[in-house]
Amino acid sequence: MQLHRHLLKSVFGKAALATAALGGLMLFAGTPSAKANDWDDCNRRAAYTDWRLHESVERYGYYSSQANHWRHEQREAYERLERVRRNEWREHERREHRGDRDRD
What is the domain count for the chain? Predict the structure, then answer.
């Protein structure tokens, strides 16, 4: 009986360790795609705020609190879009300066 308990603990311990290792590998394997999606996310967020502002102006009026909220969100979305655009431009310039033109 004692042997079975030790065997069960050993098997579950190994399975837990393997699961944690595989989970960590999968977590870090998906990280490089985060940068590529940043531009798309910013564009989608800006388009969404444009649409919401338009809808709130139609429903509640130009000077409503809802329209003011979406104007604020729209400004933030476009500021974020500009930051991403600037960072991509800096990276492009850095690569070009180093001579890594074939990576673009």
Answer: 2
